[in-house]
Write a structure and sequence with these properties.
The structure is a homodimer.
Chain A: H1 13-29, H2 36-43, H3 47-53, H4 57-82, H5 85-94, H6 99-108, H7 112-135, H8 146-166, H9 172-187
Helix pairs in contact in A: 1-2, 1-4, 2-3, 4-5, 4-7, 5-8, 6-7, 7-8
The structure holds a DNA duplex.
Chain lengths: 197, 197
Amino acid sequence: MTADRRRGSESSPTRQLLLDETERLMLEEGYAAVGVRRLAREAGVAPALVLYYFKTLDDLFLAVLKRRADGEFERQQRLLDSKPPLQALWELSRDPGLALITEFMALANHREAVRVAFAADAERYRKAQVEAIMRKAESGLPDVSPAALVVATTGIARILGMESALGITGGHEETVALIEDLLKRFYGSSSLAVDHD
Amino acid sequence: MTADRRRGSESSPTRQLLLDETERLMLEEGYAAVGVRRLAREAGVAPALVLYYFKTLDDLFLAVLKRRADGEFERQQRLLDSKPPLQALWELSRDPGLALITEFMALANHREAVRVAFAADAERYRKAQVEAIMRKAESGLPDVSPAALVVATTGIARILGMESALGITGGHEETVALIEDLLKRFYGSSSLAVDHD
DNA sequence: GTCTATATAGTGATAGAC
DNA sequence: GTCTATCACTATATAGAC
């Protein structure tokens, strides 16, 4: 299973370094900044070495996506179980660290292989989120579809993040206040001070 | 004012054709498919002619954005005044024709000139939307910030469109049902059957 | 207003030496 | 596992003929 799409071992330090630098480049300059030569320069290796570990750029992006998705899924599950799930979701989706997701969303529009993998991950995450809501459904929860709550909550959080990145901020404060007020009403008035880190 | 960024008259049929083909390419294959050679081939002209009308690719994208923004703004204002504004906004933001906006959003991440112009347009649209809500604020409207309602309504609609384009559909039906139910409660139970065209 | 021809630089990817 | 050298192709942009 390791034979034809990739050379080198999965645990190779160089390979990990290339994945790290790819994530950094995507976050700091966008996915378009990631190329064989540029990535090699950032990592301090020869361009051909990038293609030794990742036969194509698709393979590189897919590897970044996979490493992220696995790690983040576990983090999500932990948070979903540690506090009211909708509130956990709101905080998770507003985490600036999730900017990489936005970048992958854009990338998915232009690379079919990434699109397929990204969509599969997104559905997997969403399924787990809906299940967490249903699992912990308490009396305070309104009589609406858990799936709709998940989509609306994460969707608004992500739109706010995307717009902010473009310098669009009109109405953002009011929207954050509205959502956090609604969460407060759903879950009672425990502190909702969101700390991102 | 026509001198140094562009040659050719603003009403030139060839220029209009290039703008049309750019929009079509962006919608069908994404902004990355738009280049001097490709666009020229699609329009059936020589590559250099593209650069005769648009000195740089930035100028081309900016011209597409401007032509769209002007036309759509008028359409938005008409719809905002012809029916309950939040409902108008929901329908407007779900119009598949707005997929071009998503493409520009992605493009804005990678072209500073486009980012600035796009952000200015977005703030202008949002301002007009909030004003329409306030202008027609009726008894049925809930006691929440009009700006928050605008951001949430348009944001959810746009996220649904973006996800659909990637093949992510989990929870979408439920979300549409939730929003349309809320709109019904806000505005009474007049027909909400959405017709996109 | 439209074209050909070209300049300069970039890209992803491969072969093969070490 | 890492390198140099190179292939084939694309990019934006310009100069100047018609």
